[in-house]
C-alpha cells in the first residue's frame, strides 16, 4: 500500500511541476523581453502541458521507477537521464525540413525568421530545433527529478523509533 501511495504522490508531483517549467522557458523570457503575453491563453497552455506530461510519467516513469526500486537501484540519475531522453527524443524525432516546396518561419526572439526555405532548414531552423529538443529534455529532467524527490521523501526510512544506545553500552 505504501508503494502505491508513493507512486501516486510522485506521479502527481512530476505532472504538476510541468506548468512551472513551461513558465520558466516560455513565459519568463517573453515577459523579460517586453513582448506582449496573451495572459488569457495561459490556463489552457498549462492544462495541456500537464495533459501532455501524463503519459510520459505513467508509461515511462512509473514502470522504470518500479523496476529500479525492485532491483535496489532506485537513484536520481537513471530517472533524470530517462526523463531527459524521453523528452528530447520526442521533440527531436523529426528533423527540420520537409518537401522541396515547403517553407516556414516564425518568431525568433521577437523577429521573424525563415526556419525552412524550399524544404531546407536554415540556421534559425536548426537553432529552433535544438531549442525545442533542449526545452523538452528540460521538462523530462525536472519531472524526473521531482518524481525522485517525492518518492524519496515518502519512502525514506523511518528512524523515529530506533533507540539510541547509551555511550559505553554494547
Automatic annotation (TrEMBL):
Keywords: Membrane, Transmembrane, Transmembrane helix. The chain crosses the membrane at residues 12-33, 45-69, 76-93, 129-150. It comes from the Bacteria. This is Uncharacterized protein.
